[in-house]
């Protein structure tokens, strides 16, 4: 006997579970189907909770603490003798945090009276003739279920992209999953791809003692980041000991006792490097495996993403898609925003996701965060702008923290002064960027930020000073 719902969400990651919660809040009878398995049990939260945002940030924090104890505590007059690394405890802490998040999401589904089904959801086919408004979803898990609903949200996420010819074995050749669970610090760690995962995971294992080499295909480092910030980042990371080679072409990866990577360098010279482990972080591919979506008539684009319009409608009536499985940045908060917006639209309400104010953060040390346009984009678009920067070196709180690397940079329209982009490299950039997001969402000018009282001493004063710098009137430099 089929169970009937107003809304079925396939996928329990940040896009899916949030869409389900908002749908339930809006009065819809909602089901959420997710297949993630941890020791035979459901593990809600998708990539983000299980092998993405949460565990990576847990390890980034632990490894940073370790590095501080080894290299930074002494300047505070704190002497640490016999410092050691207990990696099993560090990994255990990370696993515990993941589990707390899994359970927390399960609790939220219950609290919102959402029926959860553990298993793979797939379309039974096109809607049965005569009733084009009802979709049938089969759930294949410990027990088989048949669900019906007029609205289906697909939030099936993404998978790590493999390098052609090199499968992930998660022992020597690691995706993000393996990179978060290495049981002994490798002496030599190779990373292919100097993107977000490569830099975050490379930083974790470097801090714990690995020699890390990052091989990047593009000739420029962090091409999507504001050039001035990216150059600063390259300098800092290489000072920290990350060896980053840009402009490489990977020829062959051979895994035996270690991993040998043959590649040509930026000058075209043939090189060969041997690593104990290799992380491949060259982007992610949308996941529609086992969904039977195409058979149900769903259209994918040429790169395998589910084709959607600006409002996340697919080509099928009542079928929506959100998060990593559709166009746009692969970020948890983007997936969440789309999840809420789609639930609102299904309920007949208006909703909008502003892609221009989605913040990006790279959780390295220093952190890199930005929102809006980069200076190179403004130049390419012929936009006249004014720019203001303020270094953390001149910020009292940063000095007290012992972390004065980096700067805040603000870009504003030359005529209207409206903020067009904010770029930060430095301590707590992930938190500081929120002020810029709010400002841009409300169409603020740099002068607006300059006029606002910021607490002293705080890192956020650097945002105010960068705004003052747009008008060439900084107070503290
Ligand atoms: P997912 O989180 O991938 O969830 C999809 C869910 O659907 C999964 O549970 C999957 O098992 C399930 N599923 C798939 N197919 C089916 C099916 N047919 N039936 C049932 N269930 C199915 N983003 C950030 O914003 N900040 C970060 O700090 C960050 N760090 C990251 C670190 C790493 C190492 C990685 C890999 C990613 C990181 N991301 C980060 C990206 C973030 O994880 C993704 O953007 C986000 O998880 C996408 O959410 P989603 O709901 O679209 O998909
Ligand atoms: P990415 O897109 O950030 O970086 C991939 C890098 O690999 C690029 O620099 C690309 O030029 C390079 N590359 C591609 N093919 C290559 C090849 N054959 N040889 C060498 N280099 C190659 O992808 P990544 O790091 O895998 O992360 C995937 C996504 O996950 C990110 O784009 C982001 O959306 C999300 N993520 C977000 C995080 C955050 O918000 N802090 C953290 C980690 C991941």
Unique bound compounds: flavin-adenine dinucleotide, 1,4-dihydronicotinamide adenine dinucleotide
Helix content estimate? 25-40%
Q: Identify the strand order in the major beta sheet.
A: 1-2-5-6-7
The CATH topology assignment of the largest domain is: FAD/NAD(P)-binding domain
Q: What is the approximate shape? A: globular
CATH class label of the largest domain: Alpha Beta
**Share of residues in strands:** 25-35%
Task: Give the CATH architecture of the largest domain.
Answer: 3-Layer(bba) Sandwich
* Rg value: 24 Å
Tell me briefly what this model is.
The protein is an alpha/beta fold. The chain is built from 13 helices and 23 strands.
Describe this entry's structure for a reader.
With 477 residues, the protein is an alpha/beta fold. The chain has 3 domains: 3-159 and 285-353, 3-Layer(bba) Sandwich (FAD/NAD(P)-binding domain); 173-282, FAD/NAD(P)-binding domain; 358-470, Enolase-like, domain 1 (2-Layer Sandwich), CATH 3.30.390. Helix content is 31%, strand content 26%. It has a 5-stranded mixed barrel with strand order 1-2-5-6-7. Strands 9-16-10-11-12 form a 5-stranded parallel sheet. Helix 1 packs parallel to helix 8, helix 3 packs antiparallel against helix 4 and helix 3 (53-72) packs parallel to helix 6. The longest helix has 25 residues, at 87-111. The mean pLDDT is 97. It binds flavin-adenine dinucleotide and 1,4-dihydronicotinamide adenine dinucleotide. 1,4-dihydronicotinamide adenine dinucleotide (NAI) is lined by residues 163, 192-198, 200, 215-218, 250, 281-284, 329-331, 361-363.
């Amino acid at each position: 006997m089929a169970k009937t719902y107003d809304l079925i969400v396939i996928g329990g990651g940040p896009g899916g579970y949030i869409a389900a919660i908002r749908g339930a809040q809006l009065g819809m009878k909602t089901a959420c189907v997710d297949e993630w398995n941890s020791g035979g049990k459901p593990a809600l939260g998708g990539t983000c909770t299980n092998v993405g945002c949460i565990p990576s940030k847990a390890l980034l924090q632990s490894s940073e603490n370790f590095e501080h104890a080894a290299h930074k505590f002494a300047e505070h007059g704190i002497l640490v003798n016999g410092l050691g690394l207990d990696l099993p405890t560090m990994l255990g802490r990370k696993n515990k945090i993941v589990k707390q998040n899994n359970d927390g999401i399960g609790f939220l589904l219950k609290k919102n009276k959402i029926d959860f089904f553990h298993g793979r959801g797939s379309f039974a086919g096109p809607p049965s003739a005569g009733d084009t408004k009802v979709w049938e979803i089969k759930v294949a898990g410990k027990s088989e279920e048949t669900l019906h609903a007029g609205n289906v949200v697909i939030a099936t996420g993404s998978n790590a992209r493999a390098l052609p010819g090199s499968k992930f074995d998660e022992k020597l050749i690691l995706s993000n999953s393996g990179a978060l669970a290495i049981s002994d610090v490798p002496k030599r760690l190779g990373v292919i791809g100097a993107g977000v995962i490569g830099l975050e995971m490379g930083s974790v294992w470097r801090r714990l003692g690995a020699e890390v080499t990052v091989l990047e295909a593009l000739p420029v480092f962090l091409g999507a980041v504001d050039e001035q910030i990216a150059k600063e980042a390259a300098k800092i990371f290489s000072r920290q000991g990350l060896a980053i080679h840009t402009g490489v072409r990977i020829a062959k990866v051979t895994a035996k006792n270690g991993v040998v990577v043959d590649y040509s360098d930026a000058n075209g010279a043939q090189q060969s490097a041997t690593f104990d482990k290799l992380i491949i972080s060259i982007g992610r591919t949308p996941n529609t495996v086992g969904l039977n979506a195409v058979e149900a008539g769903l259209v994918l684009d040429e790169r395998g993403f589910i084709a959607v319009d600006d409002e996340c409608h697919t080509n099928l009536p009542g079928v929506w898609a959100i998060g990593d499985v559709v166009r746009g940045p692969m970020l948890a908060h983007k997936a969440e925003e789309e999840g809420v917006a789609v639930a609102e639209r299904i309920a007949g309400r208006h909703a909008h996701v502003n892609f221009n104010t989605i913040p990006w953060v790279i959780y390295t040390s220093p952190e890199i965060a930005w929102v809006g346009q980069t200076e190179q984009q403004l130049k390419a678009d012929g936009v006249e702008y004014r720019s203001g920067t303020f270094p953390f070196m001149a910020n009292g709180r940063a000095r007290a923290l012992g972390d004065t690397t980096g700067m805040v940079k603000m870009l504003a329209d030359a005529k209207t002064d409206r903020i067009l982009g904010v770029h930060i490299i430095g301590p707590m950039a992930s938190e500081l960027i929120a002020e810029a997001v709010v400002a841009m969402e409300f169409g603020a000018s740099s002068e607006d930020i300059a006029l606002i009282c910021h607490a002293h001493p705080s890192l956020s004063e650097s945002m105010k000073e960068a705004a003052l710098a747009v008008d060439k009137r900084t107070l503290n430099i």
